[in-house]
Amino acid sequence: MATITLSNVSKDYGGGPVLRGIDLEIREGEFVALMGPSGCGKSTLLRLIAGLEEPGGGQIHIDGRLVNDVAPKDRDLAMVFQSYALYPHMTVRENMSFALKQRRLPQTEITKAVEAAAAKLGLTALLERKPKALSGGQRQRVAMGRAIVRDPKAFLFDEPLSNLDARLREQMRYEIRKLHRELGATSVYVTHDQVEAMTMADRIVALNDGAIQQVGSPQDLYDNPANLFVAGFLGSPPMNFLDATLAPDGALVVEGQTLVRAPLSLPPGTTVTLGLRPEHLALTTPADGVPVRVDMVEPTGTGRVVHLALGAQRLKLFTMDTRPLAPGDAVGLMVPPGAPLLFQPGTGTRIG
């Protein structure tokens, strides 16, 4: 197991900065997810840790050792890619043992390591098969097994589940997390999928536009997002954002309707962005809540996502309420006092 420390790390390919001033410490035995949209710099950051890219500035330490100029093979890290990268002419056993043979380890030691990893991953019966005879999920387990047998200081995962269907992704999320718990190894996991980040990570590093937006536990980022980006990226359905104005009595007014009161020391007339999680909202009658109109209803099995129109603005509500609803119906919206999050328009900074 290893600690990984990045200090003011940057990267620029010539067309502008890809990473800007990254400061991050990954603790020994921790599972950290680097999460963000395509182009945010998360895969580049992983490749810098692996040594596949050179930083433009800053320092990278692994277990206290500066590794900026250390070759990938000498960093003692194992990487699992999205594309499996298995040798098609080799059996599962040969794929998993390849790196150990390159180290010229004794055959008995190689066999023991491969069979132990295969048992952990449910691959024992597949050891003599070639990749073409395996499913996508089995191939990804082989790629993980090849990494495990090396007994590295840390595992680096680069969107390893992106090529799998939804059911397999769910299964592999469980298997990777279980494996991490058993091995206790430091793991860095790149994903654009907020469900993967929320369900697997000890801590999430939210990245956007080459910079860290927030670092914390999944629940902390969900409950206390630092800005609009983090608030909008986590959650399904995603958070609603409404333009609101602060009234003299402290009420937040949207489209002429008072939604909730806000404990803000801001002057009346101040415009804010109001954030509301769909699952925090409730339906009632128009007389008992804020009058809104049903735009669309999406059944999910466990409940329904109800699209609502509040004047010219739109929002979503998740409910297990089974009352009949149809587009055009007039209903009431209830917003609990502790539900709203407030953000500064323009900058997106959290202000309440």
Describe the largest sheet.
Answer: 6 strands, mixed
What is the CATH top level name of the largest domain?
Alpha Beta
Low-confidence stretches: none
* SS strand fraction: 25-35%
How many runs of DSSP E, i.e. beta strands? 20
What structural class should be given to the helix and strand makeup? alpha+beta
Q: Which sequence of SSEs, written as H and E, runs from N to C?
A: EEEHEEEHHHEHEHEEHHEEEEEEEEEE
* Overall mean confidence score, pLDDT: 92
Count of domain modules: 2
Q: Which bin fits the share of residues in helices?
A: 10-25%
Shape: elongated
Number of helices: 8
CATH superfamily (homologous) name of the largest domain: P-loop containing nucleotide triphosphate hydrolases
CATH fold group of the largest domain:
Rossmann fold
The span between the termini is 39 Å
- Main-sheet strand order equals 6-7-8-3-9-10
Radius of gyration from the alpha-carbon trace, in angstroms:
25 Å
CATH architectural arrangement of the largest domain:
3-Layer(aba) Sandwich
Report on the architecture of this protein:
With 352 residues, this protein is of the alpha+beta class. It folds into two domains: 4-233, P-loop containing nucleotide triphosphate hydrolases (Rossmann fold, 3-Layer(aba) Sandwich); 240-343, OB fold (Dihydrolipoamide Acetyltransferase, E2P) (Beta Barrel). It contains eight helices and 20 strands. The strands form four sheets. The chain has a six-stranded mixed beta sheet with strand order 6-7-8-3-9-10, with helices on both faces. The longest helix is centred in the middle third of the chain and has 18 residues, at 166-183. It is elongated and about 80 Å long. The model has no long low-confidence stretch (mean pLDDT 92).
